[in-house]
Each structure stands twice: as C-alpha cells, then as structure tokens.
Amino acid sequence: MKEKSQFEKNAADKQVELLSGALNGAVSAGGHWLNATGKGYPKFYPAGVAVSPFNALFMALHSDKHGCKSNLFTLYSEAKARGESVKEHEKGVPFLFYNWNKYVNRNNPNEVISRDDYQKLSPEEKNRYKGVHNREIRTLFNIDQTLLPHVDRKAYDDALAKYGNSVEQGFGEKELRELRPKFNAFVQSISRNLAPVRTDGSGVAHYDSQKDAIYIPRQKDFAHYTDYAQETLRQIIAATGHQQRLAREGMVMKNGIPPTEDAVKQERLIAEIASGIKMLEMGLPARLSDESVKLVDYWNRELKENPCLIDAIESDVNNALEVIRKAERGEKIEYATYRNHRQTE
To answer: What pTM was computed for the model?
Structure first.
C-alpha cells in the first residue's frame, strides 16, 4: 500500500476520532450513534450534489458532533466567494476526493494511458484497463459553521426546510407511513436481484449463507419501524459479503474452517456502518444493535491500534453499498463463478 502523506494520516485520525466518539456515545444513548435528529443525506451546498457513502458518514458524524441543523456542507473557498465565510476557529471535516486520471493495462502494468486516451477506446478495449485513482483530501464545513444564517437568512431557512432535521422538515408519522412502501419496494428489489428476503417465525433476524437467504421476523415483532428497517438492512449487508459476491473475510469459510473471531467482529462493524448509511439515505436515525453495543470497546481499540483498519472499512462499506445500489437499479447480482464462466466462454 502506498505510504500515506502526513495530511492523509491526519485525515484518517480525524475519521477515527469521529467514528469512535459516535460509537462511545451510543453506549449511553440507547444505541443511537448516527443522525439521531433525522437530517437529510449529506450534500454540497448550494448545488445539492450528493456524496459517496463513506464521505457521507463522516460529514453526518461531524454535523451530529457540532449540533448542526443539516448535513449541508461547503468548501472554505466557495463559502468565501459567496460572501458567507467560515467563522473563525471552526474545524472542518476531511473529504476524500478521488481522481481517475490514469489507466493501466490489466495484463501489462508498464502500459499506462491518460484519461483522454481511455475515453477514446471501444467498450471492449476499455475492459483491458483499470483506473489508477489519485486521492485528494479537501476540508468541508457545515453551513452552520459559516455566516450564511446571518448573510442570507431566507436561503438558510429554505435549505433547512428541504434538508434539515426531522423537525425542520416537518417529518412526522405521516411521512414515516409514506416511507414504508418505498422501503418495501427496496426489499423486493433486493429479494429479486441479490438474495431472497423471507419472513422468519423464530423471531431472530439472520442471513443463512448456506441457503443464501435473508430471514427477517414480522414487522410487528419490532418495537419501532426504524428497528425493523435497520435490522433488515444489516442482514442485506451480510448477504453482500457472500463467498460468491464480495467474499469478505468475516463471511467466508476456508477449507471448512469458520472465520476468526476478529473477522466476525469486524464484519459486524461493517454491517452497522453500512446499514447506518442506508438509514441516513432515508433520513432516519441509526442505532447499534444490543449485541453490537457490547463490541464498542473492542472496535475502538482496533481502530486506534491499526492505522490501516479505517481504509479497509472504507473499501468494504463502499463495495457493499455499491452491490446494493446495483440490485436496487434492477441489476441481477450473479455469483462470481457464473460471471467467470460466461467470460471464459
């Protein structure tokens, strides 16, 4: 792995600090660790451009920590250009920005071409190359850390009405009822394109990797609808780690030997983070399961002692959510052996 610059190390330390702080807070907050006030999904202000899952996570955690009313963020330079400068002594949140300016031949690592040359290739030729990403780190500030509320109160209030917390948006029982058919449609897409989602009478939600099926108790068996939604998401995340999909270490049997205890604990953290981000997409709060709350000290110790862990989590979370997005769009998620066999033919 390429050696990180000091700026990258500082950004990773900030991410670990935010994540650990949120996990610690969940212990005394009934498990709630992300978006407790029901804000909208993180975006750039004023364009409204959404961001990648892992960036969204830390923008939301930063917003939660500072008590901001929305998850709307801006660059320092852009806020200043609009006459809405960032206030003095405010600390921002790191934003990971990836550029794909070069592409390397999968069979000849010495052959590197520019992005412009790559774009000129036919689809078949493009398959022979893979992107080489260059990571840049920017610093973002929440609009509550700027002078926007004082410079243009109407624009600020309009932004909160659209993207603010549940109170600012007027999100109540009516809106939650309207969300349910959307979530049901999402689950149906997962059942068709990823793994079947079935009702389980035992009262215990689980993913059966042997049958490659997700089992969820009835909705009325959960105290709150949000608990039902997130538990369903946790099991869907687990299904993405199947041997024939992303083959995450915590989900894979090797030579008949189950994954290590550490791998299983890391897999649970992936499920909590990825399901939390999906809850964030729906504007709902996320909480740790009762079993996960017991692992907070372990996770925080691992995050502190292993500087590479946060990068591994980023990769696993983004990949899991990308598989789910494909299933949502109607793309059938095939087993790896099927894909490889078809490519061989």
So the answer is: 0.88
